[in-house]
TrEMBL record, chains A, B, C, D:
Coiled coil: none annotated. One of its GO terms (molecular function) is FMN binding. Homotetramer. This is L-lactate oxidase. It comes from Lacticaseibacillus nasuensis JCM 17158.
Amino acid sequence: MTYTPDFGSVQPIDVLNLKSLEKRAEAVIGRGEFGYISEGSDDGYTKARNTTAFNDVQMLPRVLQNVENPDQSTKFLGSSLASPLMTAPIAGNTLAHSSGELGLARGAKEAGIMMAQSTFASKTIAETAQVSDGAPYMFQLYMPKDWGYCKYLLDEARNAHASAIILTADSTLGGYRELDVINHYHLKGKIANLAGYNTGESGAGAGSLFKESMQKLNLGLIDKLADYSGLPIFIKGIQTPADAAAAIDAGAAGIYVSNHGGRQLNGAPGSIETLPGIAKVVDHRVPIIFDGGVQRGTHVLKALALGADLVAVGRPFSYGLALGGWQGVKSVADHLKMEIYIAMQLTGCQTIADVKKMHVTYDFSR
Amino acid sequence: MTYTPDFGSVQPIDVLNLKSLEKRAEAVIGRGEFGYISEGSDDGYTKARNTTAFNDVQMLPRVLQNVENPDQSTKFLGSSLASPLMTAPIAGNTLAHSSGELGLARGAKEAGIMMAQSTFASKTIAETAQVSDGAPYMFQLYMPKDWGYCKYLLDEARNAHASAIILTADSTLGGYRELDVINHYHLKGKIANLAGYNTGESGAGAGSLFKESMQKLNLGLIDKLADYSGLPIFIKGIQTPADAAAAIDAGAAGIYVSNHGGRQLNGAPGSIETLPGIAKVVDHRVPIIFDGGVQRGTHVLKALALGADLVAVGRPFSYGLALGGWQGVKSVADHLKMEIYIAMQLTGCQTIADVKKMHVTYDFSR
Amino acid sequence: MTYTPDFGSVQPIDVLNLKSLEKRAEAVIGRGEFGYISEGSDDGYTKARNTTAFNDVQMLPRVLQNVENPDQSTKFLGSSLASPLMTAPIAGNTLAHSSGELGLARGAKEAGIMMAQSTFASKTIAETAQVSDGAPYMFQLYMPKDWGYCKYLLDEARNAHASAIILTADSTLGGYRELDVINHYHLKGKIANLAGYNTGESGAGAGSLFKESMQKLNLGLIDKLADYSGLPIFIKGIQTPADAAAAIDAGAAGIYVSNHGGRQLNGAPGSIETLPGIAKVVDHRVPIIFDGGVQRGTHVLKALALGADLVAVGRPFSYGLALGGWQGVKSVADHLKMEIYIAMQLTGCQTIADVKKMHVTYDFSR
Amino acid sequence: MTYTPDFGSVQPIDVLNLKSLEKRAEAVIGRGEFGYISEGSDDGYTKARNTTAFNDVQMLPRVLQNVENPDQSTKFLGSSLASPLMTAPIAGNTLAHSSGELGLARGAKEAGIMMAQSTFASKTIAETAQVSDGAPYMFQLYMPKDWGYCKYLLDEARNAHASAIILTADSTLGGYRELDVINHYHLKGKIANLAGYNTGESGAGAGSLFKESMQKLNLGLIDKLADYSGLPIFIKGIQTPADAAAAIDAGAAGIYVSNHGGRQLNGAPGSIETLPGIAKVVDHRVPIIFDGGVQRGTHVLKALALGADLVAVGRPFSYGLALGGWQGVKSVADHLKMEIYIAMQLTGCQTIADVKKMHVTYDFSR
């Protein structure tokens, strides 16, 4: 099935910094939609801590390291990336821009970074894959209760050349998000993949999302998903060394350290606080993806230095998408790459391998 | 003596979160009364720290734990509770709502949680017991100087099927509360139990409350109260491992960790800061009740993980009572249960026993 | 020489808390004078830290300790005090109220606490002594360059039945105080003692205070002052264990832990932060006076628990003096005694000896 | 080549404190220029932390140390200085005042402190040297790509009697400075030294500054620069013990601890946080210059006590220059000397050697 993707209205955007995009995006996104995208759960402690915790990580820069034109390209799961960045899997991107995942996919592709698509995307895997067209791509799975639907998703992901399946483990139900209550907001719009599976029937609305998802997640699913799909399985939502170890023992091909942008359990540490302990246990046996509060090139360097192999960014790409479609996404990625470039030069790192060896200090131990 | 309880005006209330109730309740309670209910002592450090200290406790959530529909029911002193929650014993609840303790008792009963009645309640033990009618119930004792009055209270509590007596040890006089000075506020209204003991005579006003209470509290009282009442004695106001150990050695059947909501001694740690050290000394020999600044389901989980068996909440239930009578109390409990439910699912806890084994980190050691 | 002391306009004052007096006093004291009294040096870090550091000291209250009507009376240098409090030696009290040190002396006497008079007082030692009249009294010495003048001061102090001489060691020149610069303020008014020594001639103004004082202070002075006066010598301004040890070895009869209310060196720790280390070195060989940021009864208890024998309060007494003359001073002392009384009862301390044994935790180690 | 230096409009200025100069200077400097001078990189964390970190260093003052008229004079590289201060090398000082480096040089000379001139100065080395005229002077080198130009700079520096060359190692490209983006500001004005090398042709604008500078800095340059110039080589921008050790091993004659005023890499520790570890490794083998956030005399003492031999101050001298030309520079230095004088007296330090032995505590370890 081929169709001509509609990227909607696009334009490159000026990016002063990632944080500044939020206010600008708020002006162009509906109030309920913006609340849903931006909020954390409960009183927002963990969401806020995700970013502030980076201030408690201190890079110790080296000088006279013979660095010129630092090279931030990297390899991840066999893909060559222009930068160790990924668009975090976010649901329902048409909330931000009519092009939804098509815009995200094209922006990521043009920027040379990894794109991850959510089960709850506004576009089907096939539609997105047509844009992505072989560029680095991963598929995020909210485990459905229906194994038939799950197999459909895995089949589609494999057809889309997904380099891995990301099984989200931290969202067996939704966090308590007060802005949605205040705004009387219920996630609208179809779940494209579910609609696709239902052979065109209108899929379930967002209100029933978790009814469609499975609660009783366990370690046994890893092998089941890997066996059916033949793809590497990453576990997303790991916040403890114990879970990282258990997941690898159970066959996980990668660890995704995340607290879901502070949208699920509140009262957990900032995501970066949990990374060093997890990286120690993982000990390079499998790759680590990290997300949580990243807003600066220096945040990316800190995460890499503390053990991440790939750093995902969520809301800022949604804001870029809202403001400029795929070109906005690319603008965000390009800005971040510029900040990474400067930070690598100024910390004395010629390559991403150098960044991973950089000495950082931190004030927490979890 | 049977009478038809008057529950006053009641309605279920929308609860965005427990903290948000304070402002709403302020609008319906008298200024002096609201000041008295809401305030801490001195400059309010300990009251504020009670809640902020929870941010220094970090839960480390587990994933893939096979959890579905987590079960927060628990047993406490032989009672089955729908959730490990208690309405903390608060004096004079008619300050908040005409139904006073009747509303609290019915709200707690309908929510399936423990109710604790204060010696300084606005309703007699017997009146409250008629509503409570066998539901989980404890009686809090401010030790009177008059042993005859004390015996009367213990008799009434036993008749009311109290599962235990909570002897408050941290209030041999009142903390210094500046809002009362500013508002020229003196606790008004009768002490129902004292009036009952006085065979209908108007009891002492709040101004003489501490004149009626005993100062010279000591460990020997525990046996005396237990012997007369035949009931387990909990000591409320424990903030040190040394006092917990001494109380158990002297016959206490339970420990109630509390700093009286920051209304008594100011300059003490946040209540949750003192819990781990006390739990270590108690070592499961007797049950532990905890209160202090609880406003979130995650706070409940943190307290349980640090050693509490039952978690009491004070002011928020008063505010719920003020806003909706017994239905407001139930609304508060239901909201908290909802938050607990989500937090259990997201931390990988199927049961309260799992919560108690959850790994948490904290930044204080007392 | 006898005269009738003029206490000026007096009235008891309502004291909500000590902190609240500052704003009220500002309204009745001249702008320059208020700036001079209230300010700290440089950017005020140490002055502010003096009070906030008390929040990092946590009392661990005991219960069931058989306490009733706690007794805060104490002995210091043979004097019986109603409370372990002292009016810190403050210069030029007529800046606050026409009665100056006469009001301070009478207020302290009526409250049963120690009074300390500054060398730079607005009233002579003899005038003050006539009011003090045998009540607990100490004399604070800014070491003059002129030994004759020094002998005169010591003679007068002995005649006034001073129980000790407090040699201030932290003020060989004045701290940098920006409010004085902003207000173009120069300490006005005569130095009464200097005028007295000059047989009635008008003494030097405040501008030349430090010209009259000696810079080259050293340990040898302790014996010299003790030999001439026959009085115990306390060293004021001790902030290190090393200086405490050296002073005792050189003959000091007492240690006065102080950073001069944050008016001298800025960038030093809060005064209470330095107390535990000093108390450890002093090891009860000599008594310890403490000042620095005390605004609460709980602050007094914390200082005693960390090693102080007597706790001095400065600015709040000046404000009380400004607002009510000697009766205002007494009102401040009475309020503080009330807060101490409550705090003793609630921490389970029957006596000051119990307070000194109370367990406190703190987050600093200097 | 002799000419009459034009010092422009000059006046001594009142300095309440160094921090207060910023607002006053903002009023007389162009918006873009002020942004460029004042800003830090990214979100300004490191710039702000440079100053706030001094609050985490606590001086423990000694008393009775026989101190009178403390002497802050010091020797550095054979030069006698009235105070251990230096004007940090700042680019393009005509942005602040028409006299540019001429004013800085004269102000420093009159104040008896070290002057450091930037490669990117608004005046040539020769012009500045004519004013400096043998007063303590260092030359800061941004390594040019062109070795001929580099030799020219070194020749000029030697002719100007520079006591050392400061090779800046932390700026192989510029930090990301958002105010310049917001203000659409590009550093204007000629690079005087480059113009001089180009025999009078108009030099490159600021936009191409880093095009003219070398990226691939390495340890081998130290010997090369030392061999050609015959001058001691300091490395500026050292933030780690490892780099300090490596630089000394490679022939560096001095270490300059700095994070470029927080204008380059953001997310690094406050500069003072890095000093103790570096000083330990340097172990007095070579002298240490320090800069970063110094605004108080006490900051200077803290830096000396933690291992610095010379303390540089940047922006405040630019603001003094803007407000009063060379006299403003001298006013700033004089104010700082006054604060240092008071702080030395009050910490019991007679000499700079005493300051270096002072006991300080700090809450960080990098």
